[in-house]
Amino acid sequence: MYPLPRNTRTTESLRPGRRVEFLARRCRACAACALLLIVLFAVAASGQEPWQSRSLILTTQGVAATSQTPASQVAAGVLGRGGSVVDAAIAANAMLGVVEPMMCGIGGDLFAMHFDAQTEKLTGLNASGWAPARMTAAPQGGFTGIHTVTMPGAVDGWWKMHQKFGRLLWAELFAPAIRYARNGFPVTEIMHEDRATSGEKWPGRVPAVVEIWKTPDLARANEIIARQGRDGFYKGPLAADILKTSARLGRLLASNDFPEYESEFVEPLSTTYRGARVFELPPNGQGDRRSRC
Question: What pTM was estimated for this model as a whole?
Answer without folding.
Answer: 0.78
